[in-house]
């Protein structure tokens, strides 16, 4: 049985001020471009057997920030996220498999209207009460997806061979949830 030591049962709320959802993708085969999403919300419903816990994380894909306005606008376009038709990316949590604070979170990632099962390598960082009396729980998670599996196929061939943007995208999450009934 999976456990989340210190987390009470009930619905915990994602704290966007203490959460970061980021990604990196290889550019021109020689470096990585990194970005973050500024608008994220969600909740995690913790059950006594944590493996049966569920939740939903929603990301406003228009809030993408790669520190380059032109690139951000291209990523928002129909060639990538297509925010006009698909403004949100979601991750529906279907279960946790954590032993001694490490393991996986299983769920369904929906991006551009395409849903795929995605497993996150996850570390449960524990529970703490902050200086204002709010009980918080933290998680770190990561995975790598194929953007082609979500219908994101835009690319450009390079003169020396290869392509502008790799298919593989790494997703990194640092997430805090607040206990049921807490203010954040």
From TrEMBL:
Superkingdom: Bacteria
Gene3D superfamilies from the UniProt entry: Lipid/polyisoprenoid-binding, YceI-like
Residue intervals of the Lipid/polyisoprenoid-binding YceI-like domain: 11-178
Coiled-coil zones: none
Family, per entry: Belongs to the UPF0312 family.
Record-given protein name: Polyisoprenoid-binding protein
Species of provenance: Kocuria tytonicola
Classification lineage: Bacteria, Bacillati, Actinomycetota, Actinomycetes, Micrococcales
């Amino acid at each position: 049985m999976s456990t989340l030591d210190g987390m009470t049962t009930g619905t915990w709320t994602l704290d966007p001020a203490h959460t970061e959802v980021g990604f990196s993708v290889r550019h021109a085969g020689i470096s990585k471009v990194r970005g973050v999403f500024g608008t994220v919300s969600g909740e995690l419903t913790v059950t006594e057997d944590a493996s049966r816990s569920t939740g939903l994380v929603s990301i406003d894909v228009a809030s993408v920030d790669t520190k380059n306005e032109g690139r951000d606008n291209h990523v928002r376009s129909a060639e990538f996220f297509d925010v006009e038709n698909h403004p949100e990316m979601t991750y529906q949590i279907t279960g946790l498999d954590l032993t001694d604070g490490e393991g996986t979170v299983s769920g369904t990632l929906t991006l551009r209207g395409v849903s795929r099962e995605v497993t996150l390598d996850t570390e449960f960082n524990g529970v703490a009460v902050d200086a204002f009396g709010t009980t918080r729980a933290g998680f770190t998670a990561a995975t790598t997806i194929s953007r082609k599996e979500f219908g994101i196929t835009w690319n450009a061939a390079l003169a020396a061979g290869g392509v502008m943007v790799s298919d593989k995208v790494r997703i990194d999450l640092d997430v805090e949830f607040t206990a049921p009934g807490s203010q954040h």
